[in-house]
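Second opinion, please. Please look over this fold, written as C-alpha cells:

===
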Amino acid sequence: MDFLVDGHNILFNMQTLYGFAIGVYAAWLGARDQSLSGNFFGTVAVYAILNIVTLAIGTFLIFGDYSIESGGRTFIYVLYMLYLIVILPGLFSVMQGRDDKSAAITFGAAAMFNAAVSYSMFARGLTTWVA
C-alpha cells in the first residue's frame, strides 16, 4: 500500500499548487476587469474533484492501518479535507453564480487561502503517512 501513500502525496501537492494557480488566475481576471467564465468554474469543479480523490485515498489509508505523522490527528485531517472540498463550490453557491470583478477577487482570495491551508497541513505533518 506504499503506492497509495505516494499517490496521496502527489495528489495533495498537486491540489496545493492547483489552488494557488486558481487564486492567481482569478486575481488576474479580476485585475483585467473580466468576468469569470465557464472555464474558471470548471477549474473550481476540478479542484473539488481532486480533493475528493485525495480524501478517498486518505480514508483508504486510515482504514489500512496507516496513521498521520503528527501524532494521529486523523480527525483534523478529515475536517481540513472536507473544508477544502466544500469551500469553493460553496462560495459559488453563496454568491449565486456572480461572475463580476468582485467575484473574481473573492474567489482569488479564497483559493489563495486554500493553498495556505494546504501548506499549513503539510507543515504540521497532517499529510505524511506512516505505517
In short: The chain is about 75% helix and 5% strand. The helical segments are 2-31, 38-63, 74-94, 101-123. Residues 100 and 114 are 21 Å apart (CA to CA).
